[in-house]
Amino acid sequence: MSAVLQNLVNQPYKHGFVTDIESDIAPKGLNEETIRLISAKKNEPEWLLAFRLGAYRKWLGMEEPKWSTVRYPEIDFQAISYYSAPKPRKKLNSMDEVDPELLRTFEKLGVPMHERAALAGVAVDVIFDSVSVATTYKQKLAEVGIIFCSISEAVHMHPDLVRQYLGTVVPVGDNYYAALNSAVFTDGTFCFIPKGVRCPMDLSTYFRINTEESGQFERTLIIAEEGASVSYLEGCTAPRFDTNQLHAAVVELVALNDADIKYSTVQNWYAGDENGVGGIYNFVTKRGLAKGVNSRISWTQVETGSAITWKYPSCVLLGENSVGEFYSVAVTNHHQQADTGTKMVHLGRNTRSTIVSKGISAGHSHNSYRGLVRVAPTAAGARNYSQCDSMLVGDACSANTFPYIQVRNHTAKVEHEASTSKIGEDQLFYFAQRGIGNEEAVSMIINGFCKDVFQQLPMEFAVEATKLLGFKLEGSVG
Amino acid sequence: MGTVTVAGGYLESLLQGQPRPPSSPLAWFNQLRADAVERASALKVPTTRDEEWRFTDISPLLGLSFQPVSAGSALDAADVGRFHLKEAAIRLVFVDGVYAPALSRRPEKVGTGPVVANLSEAVVAHATMVKPHLARHARFQDDVFTAVNTAFMHDGALVFLPRGAAIRSPIHLLFIASQKAAASHPRCLVIAEAGSEAMVIEDYVTLQQEAYVNNAVTEIVLADHARIDHVRIQRDGIEAFHLGRCAVSLARESRYRSVAIALGARISRYNLDTLLAAEGAECTLDGLALITGRQLADTHTCIDHAMPHGTSRQSHKCIVDDTAHAVFNGKIMVRTGAQHTDSSQSSRNLLLGARARVDTKPQLEIFADDVKCAHGATVGQLDSEEVFYLKSRGLTETAARNLLTYAFGAEIIDRIPVASLKHRLERTVLDHTQRS
Fold this sequence. Notes:
The structure holds 2 protein chains of 2 kinds.
Chain A: H1 3-10, H2 32-41, H3 46-60, H4 100-109, H5 113-120, H6 124-127, H7 130-143, E1 147-150, H8 151-157, H9 159-165, H10 176-184, E2 187-193, E3 203-204, E4 218-224, E5 229-235, E6 246-247, E7 250-255, E8 260-267, E9 281-290, E10 296-303, E11 308-311, E12 314-317, E13 323-332, E14 337-340, E15 343-346, E16 352-362, E17 366-375, E18 383-393, E19 398-407, E20 413-422, H11 425-433, H12 438-449, H13 451-454, H14 459-472
Parallel strand pairs in A: 2-4, 3-5, 4-7, 5-8, 6-9, 7-9, 8-10, 9-11, 9-12, 10-13, 11-14, 12-15, 13-16, 14-17, 15-17, 16-18, 17-19, 18-20
Antiparallel strand pairs in A: 1-2
Helix pairs in contact in A: 2-3, 3-10, 8-9, 12-14
Chain B: H1 2-15, H2 27-42, H3 59-62, H4 77-80, E1 90-95, E2 98-99, E3 115-118, H5 119-125, H6 127-130, H7 144-151, E4 157-161, E5 171-177, E6 183-184, E7 187-192, E8 197-206, E9 213-222, E10 227-234, E11 241-250, E12 255-262, E13 267-276, E14 282-291, E15 296-305, E16 311-320, E17 325-334, E18 342-351, E19 357-366, E20 372-380, H8 384-392, H9 397-413, H10 419-433
Parallel strand pairs in B: 1-5, 4-7, 5-8, 6-9, 7-9, 8-10, 9-11, 10-12, 11-13, 12-14, 13-15, 14-16, 15-17, 16-18, 17-19, 18-20
Antiparallel strand pairs in B: 1-2, 3-4
Helix pairs in contact in B: 2-7, 8-9, 9-10
């Protein structure tokens, strides 16, 4: 993070909307008291406190996982403050006050003008009235019965729904970080698409006002009832700066009969500097339950940021004929580490899954695909196709592939293939011959390499993602 | 909780309460064994909580008691004649892990020519050649079964090929199990000096169908431009436990070709580690597991490209019937600087039984950018279109399926360069696939 931005983020708040900041930050450390405090601050019902405490007790008995290839210094869980009121950021008065480096990034990415302002922290009403936009969207969603709000709000407004589904896909004791999240999560997104409703627009956290700072332990729950469908976008291509180093989010998706959930992520958190100093640890548990007959869950991710990305968006294919999809591009540069992939657990009959994973590593980075395709004895006629390709840029990086294939039904058909390639000098030469410079050539090659995944992204996202990749790898070739 | 005591009991019974092999006149050889005893006592028997043994539960082994056999065998040539290969002019026979000179056939050593002999005897005469290699490639520090083998290291084959030597006829190493509850720890070492060439056939067979343990370790060292063909046939008894390990080290421009077939044993595990330690080394690893009933066949391979310009090819197939369980873990490692590595790997699995199970994990770890690496894995049953095609040519459904299953396995068996062995194995596959 550049010094300018560091200052920007750390600047004390001057304009005084919140008077009593001190009292809204929990003391560092994690114990039952902290959890009771979080629950009390958020005025939560008794059952949620019990949920949190249950998770905390499970967490105490668990060990930090060590099996992955990612390496990082030990995390001191007692040195983290688990609750603070949303931090108001200093509002800038015009684009002129924004760090020029950030502007240059926006320019490269082609982020629309009005979004640049919002992302850079310029007071939105100065340039663009996004509040009214957000309000319009909210009204439109409410008309068709869609609930789209923060999870804290949902706990109060729709407690039965939250209680019915929370922790059903990712149980509190699922893994170390999921248990931690279940104990201390502070906010996140709740989305409910009622029976038969096709969500009229792509939902995105960007339009969910008041929750721009989603916090360290984010919790997302999306439910699509019978015949419902929704496309949800998480994150954005613009770099996102955050002072919290550890991020342990949990995302749960539930698709009932004939429902369809498409979850797209573009993650570009601070990745540390060129020497691998700093950067965010992104340890996320994402899982979708294709519960109903003919349901479908589709994950698309473009992972470019974070010092360490450690996540496996998964599909549990329980309903007959249900479909799971995973499309991923993971780019690592400098000293970044990524250990990502998916799990496709086939339980129902005639369930199908597709995995397309593209890993690009450059600099001194490590990029691993780790995946599981499991066909249970009950999953007659299950079908999986997986493809994971790696591209290495430079000779100091690494690319690993660890696909686990476990088949216990003889009518299943599972195929997996993986390959490795590089950006060849001959390719660049060919581009140069046609008058295309290195930078653009790399961008085009990468774009071709990742095409299968980008096609799955909503259009604006795809355009930005293409540029983002070229930008990330700038200077690593040639 | 019971497992701990049983596990201790198993190792204890193997290491302490049993006749130890006679001590060798070589101090370093005895020291090696002593170190291995110490290491084996410190290591635990792996459980399914160990990543390397995640899918292979060897706890049934721990409940049984096994004894190494020290007395020579009472078998005569008539008992073992059916295992002979007519192409093999050299044959070393081991019965329950003990060398049987009467059943073996080996050439008299002439001057400085190649050596094919029983390890425990030959090691004395050839100590200077053996010492730098024995237990240096198949390290016992992290592997309890290799440690146990090293602790009991006595009989086995020593194949030494001096510079430029070529043995045209295959070297047949025949390991026969004749007694129940026997524990054999055969140890083989193949040293191929520069430019030498040979074919080694490791053949594990049985005369009885009760439980026994084969814990075999083989080390193969190839110097520059050496060529070794290695065929390994595991046809142990249906109640047997087979724990095999082979460590191969390849020098510049050397070539190692392996065909490993697993047909027998209740639980079998084969670890094949190849280290491409110099530029231009090349290896081809082919494998077939054909299992049925409640058998479990586990193959773990590692191809370690440590230097540039290495080539590796691997094809592993499993045919799994009834409630059998096949495990494959194929790791390909391309180390930093091992540029221009060309590697490909395929794992193909045919599930025939409704409750058959396959766990496969082809694994790539790449630390160099200018390489060509690809792997693929498939699990499934016979292609219905292929079956349909054969039916349209007048074959019955059963005949069509049998033919296709046979063809699936025969692709690997065809790569065995010994005609009589190939035909015998094809026969076995054919018998296996003749199901109604």
